[in-house]
Amino acid sequence: LRVVARPLTVLQHQSRIKDMQAISELVEKHEVSLLVCGYPLNSSGMEGQRAAWVRRFLEELAGRLTIPTVLWDETYSTKRADSILRQNRGRVSRSERKTQIDALAAAVILQDYLDTHLQEEE
Questions:
Q1: Angle at 2 between CA 111 and CA 78, to 5 degrees
Q2: CB 104 within 8 A of CB 85
Q3: pLDDT by residue (tens digit) across 22-72?
Q4: What pLDDT is recorded for position 8?
Q5: CA 20 to chain centre
Q6: pTM over 0.90
Q7: How far apart are CA 95 and CA 106, in angstroms?
Q8: What whole-number distance in Å separates Cα of residue 97 and Cα of residue 33?
């Protein structure tokens, strides 16, 4: 069974409440069964301020959803996404590149999660 993650969309931050509403709508629209959220741990693997914010955000969001949620270490996902983009896309504008890297980094995080759990099932 080969499962490949791909970017769906990139949400632009509006507010905590609006962001949660947009995510909830995507979950419902696409019949999502599990929400995997990138967890920005610091280089020592510990939770810093940004990771704590993400954890609290996901805890609050999870209270609004009827599906399970999981935090997944996103270490180096942006660097890996940038590398993939450079290999496959060549030159793009700075603003377009940021959106593409964000989308691809999300797919990298999800792919890591899927690969880890598919290996565990084998």
A1: 15
A2: yes
A3: 999 999 999 999 999 999 999 899 999 999 999 999 999 999 999 999 999
A4: 87
A5: 14
A6: no
A7: 17
A8: 29
Q: Supply angle C-alpha 44, 82, 75, rounded to 5.
A: 20
Q: Which of 99, 81, 105, 113 has its CA nearest to residue 11?
A: 99
| Per-residue confidence (pLDDT) for residue 90, from 0 to 100 | 61
Residue 25: half-sphere exposure toward Cβ, Cα within 13 Å = 8
pLDDT of residue 1 exceeding 90, the answer is no
Q: Is the pLDDT of residue 3 over 80?
A: no
DSSP 57-100: HHHHHHTT-SS-EEEEE-TTHHHHHHHHHHHHH----HHHHHHH
Distance CA 71, CA 96 (A): 27
- Residue 102 structure tokens: 């964000």
